[in-house]
Hints:
The structure is a single chain. By secondary structure, the protein is α/β, with parallel strands linked by helices. Helices cover 36% and strands 21% of the residues. The longest helix is centred in the middle third of the chain and has 26 residues, at 167-192. The protein binds ligand BES, manganese (II) ion and zinc ion (ZN). Ligand BES is lined by residues 272, 290, 347, 349-352, 376-380, 382, 437, 443, 466.
Amino acid sequence: MDFEVAIGEVSRFTGQVIAINIFENENRLTPQVKQLDLALDGTISKLIEQGEIKGKFKEITQIFSMGKMIPTKVLVVGLGKNSELTPDRIRAAAAEIGKYLRARKGDTDIKLGYTLEVPGFEPSNLGQLICEGALLGFYSFKNHVSKSSEKEGSITFNIIISPGENIDSWKQGLKTGSVCAEAVILARNLVNEPANFMTPAILADVAKEQASRYDLDIQVLEKDFMQKEGMGGLLGVAQGSAQPPRFIVLKYTGKITQEIDIALVGKGITFDSGGISIKSSDGMGDMKGDMAGAAAVIAAITAIAQFKPAVNVVAIVPATENLPSGTAMRPGDVITQMNGKTVEIISTDAEGRLILADAICYAKKLGAKNIVDVATLTGACRIALGDVCSGIFSNDQDFMRKVISAGDKAGECLWPLPLKEEYRDLIKSDVADLKNSGGRYAGAITAAWFIAEFADSTPWVHLDIAGTFMLDKERGYLVKGATGIPVKTLINLVMALAT
Length: 499
Ligand code: BES
Ligand code: MN
Ligand code: ZN
């Protein structure tokens, strides 16, 4: 999908379809829509008057122009009440248009004209929101569906603005939006990819490809390195699988100093069967997405490399499968993490924290000043927050606030859960320094506490995306399947650290 901006009257647009927005309970039309209404002999205002078009959020009405202008159709998308307008609603409205285009994508070229005039939003912001919403709503994952021989037509999304509007600002917003959306799409693709197509080695190859495209430094490390560093968590989880593990380190350098301002650590379990503590089979297929944290940090750093903020960032991904076999780790085993802490394995299904612990030790070894980890870590977090908000945990309230506000800007809700000292007792072990499961109660919190033990005094935020990494039903610009959460949050956070 290509985006263009043109100054003109939407009623004179020469493509096949026009999209506009209407607020709920607001009869006054914007100047562009008023002209369109005139061209259609007052059809829009009549439909509003008759209550056919209410302007309710995401309501869609199709009006056929019946030869009154070149476009054959006008799509009227409800934006809800003006007083309830949020940036995410603008994304969602654009997503409705993206979904319309997705349904129509075929062998013909489609040109769509869109006009949106809302007070209180900068054009650069509007451009970004529209572009993100349209691209992410348009998205579908079809890598494994046999393609028909027909070639797909091109789709052009023309934003039509009025004279006097700042066209450069609009264009800049669209550019920002497309970089962010492309990053989210990369993450979605990696998560949606079946585990037989997304092994640790393949994930590392994707990271290499992205590194060379965006000029990032990359190291892909193998088992000998993990042994040398003493990564007993990562090696322990990997030992049951025939697929060799990988440790991926991507680096973006935005300033001359060597210090690393932030490390983004992503859980990279390319398939989580639970290991010897095997999961029940229903829904196990979703565990191909247990590398959604890894996908998010890899994707985010590709966008960061394009925006070029003055910060140094590393993305760190411990990648392995978690499978049962004759060589697999057993419940009751004791492993030693990179920093020397020993862990009693209660459940081999609590594997994420083991690989994250080693990755966080490595981030600290690199001297990272701040750490954010992203992980599909616990079913408990999904039970607590569902698929709406991700859980956020931290040892540093100021840093956590920054991450939450980066999330707000991204339209990605992060909800704090208490990392109170009292919960820490639940992961004490009789036979080792820690145990890897604190049982069913407060499972998201005890998992976070486990990781906190390794972050220690480094400012650290943990995002549990087990509930939000995929949806089983579409919601706005989040389509069914992988969401690409929290790529936009991570991008915003790094951009905010640079200012
Ligand atoms: N990858 C899972 C968590 C998960 C569950 C992610 C559902 C996405 C959707 C994780 O490795 C896991 O198995 N966690 C266990 C931990 C328990 C054994 C302490 C869980 O949440 O049940
Ligand atoms: Mn697990
Ligand atoms: Zn897992």
